[in-house]
Amino acid sequence: ILRPRQPRPLAGKRVLITAGPTHEPIDPVRYIANRSSGKQGFAIAAAAQAAGADVTLVSGPVELRDPAGVTVIRVESARDMLHRVQAALPADIAIFAAAVADWRVANEGEQKLKKTSAGMPPLQLVENPDILATISKLTDKRPPLVIGFAAETEHLIDNAKAKIARKGCDWIVANDVSPATGVMGGDRNTVHLLTRDDKDTGVDGIQVESWPVMTKEQVAAELVAKIA
Ligand code: CTP
Ligand code: CA
């Protein structure tokens, strides 16, 4: 049976995607994490693969199966994620959907921390590397299209505009992750696509497109169509 051939607008393109949370160790048995399920990043990987791209997905710990035909690299911490992303370059398009933990514990315990009469263990936090900003600011291997996400619970558009400028990326997918929206862990997403063609125009040169509520698969398909 002859089927009409699928349009493969991203054929020959290398797409690099991050997804999921990161786990930052406190001691050998405990970690800091967040509520990201990885669903949006995995859906984008599947959509890009279906569009013909050669896709590498660097994911933190999630309970999702590898999308067919995608190279999946599983990591734990933000630092692991950064190293695997750097090793996966060059890419034509990089999409940073991971909810990277902003902080890790500086004084990680080599042994399990024990309850003592001296009180709670003090946890000192240090900032993790910013993977999106690091890759956006590369001079030699910067992918021609760098897309970030902005997870916000208030002042969504203004915060996302500031983020696109600060990080040096080309587009940002902004989404409201307030608990009432059910985005974190859920199957639907309401996003706004912020784009800028010229980095010199600052926040004034950023266009905002607001999309209706969609499934994460639909958001992925729309984003891939836009990229194509
Ligand atoms: N990101 C990243 N590495 C980090 C933190 C964030 O690559 N250490 C990426 C995310 O994958 C996302 C974008 O940066 O694409 C924005 O993440 P977000 O958490 O919304 O922004 P932050 O800059 O961390 O600011 P804040 O959490 O304070 O809003
Ligand atoms: Ca953050």
Automatic annotation (TrEMBL):
<comment type="similarity">
    <text>In the N-terminal section; belongs to the HFCD (homo-oligomeric flavin containing Cys decarboxylase) superfamily.</text>
</comment>
<protein>
    <recommendedName>
        <fullName>Coenzyme A biosynthesis bifunctional protein CoaBC</fullName>
    </recommendedName>
</protein>
<feature type="region of interest" description="Phosphopantothenate--cysteine ligase">
    <location>
        <begin position="15"/>
        <end position="228"/>
    </location>
</feature>
<comment type="function">
    <text>Catalyzes two steps in the biosynthesis of coenzyme A. In the first step cysteine is conjugated to 4'-phosphopantothenate to form 4-phosphopantothenoylcysteine, in the latter compound is decarboxylated to form 4'-phosphopantotheine.</text>
</comment>
<comment type="function">
    <text>Catalyzes two sequential steps in the biosynthesis of coenzyme A. In the first step cysteine is conjugated to 4'-phosphopantothenate to form 4-phosphopantothenoylcysteine. In the second step the latter compound is decarboxylated to form 4'-phosphopantotheine.</text>
</comment>
<feature type="binding site">
    <location>
        <position position="102"/>
    </location>
    <ligand>
        <name>CTP</name>
    </ligand>
</feature>
<feature type="binding site">
    <location>
        <position position="163"/>
    </location>
    <ligand>
        <name>CTP</name>
    </ligand>
</feature>
<feature type="binding site">
    <location>
        <position position="112"/>
    </location>
    <ligand>
        <name>CTP</name>
    </ligand>
</feature>
<feature type="domain" description="DNA/pantothenate metabolism flavoprotein C-terminal">
    <location>
        <begin position="10"/>
        <end position="228"/>
    </location>
</feature>
<feature type="binding site">
    <location>
        <begin position="129"/>
        <end position="132"/>
    </location>
    <ligand>
        <name>CTP</name>
    </ligand>
</feature>
<feature type="binding site">
    <location>
        <position position="167"/>
    </location>
    <ligand>
        <name>CTP</name>
    </ligand>
</feature>
<feature type="binding site">
    <location>
        <position position="149"/>
    </location>
    <ligand>
        <name>CTP</name>
    </ligand>
</feature>
<comment type="similarity">
    <text>In the C-terminal section; belongs to the PPC synthetase family.</text>
</comment>
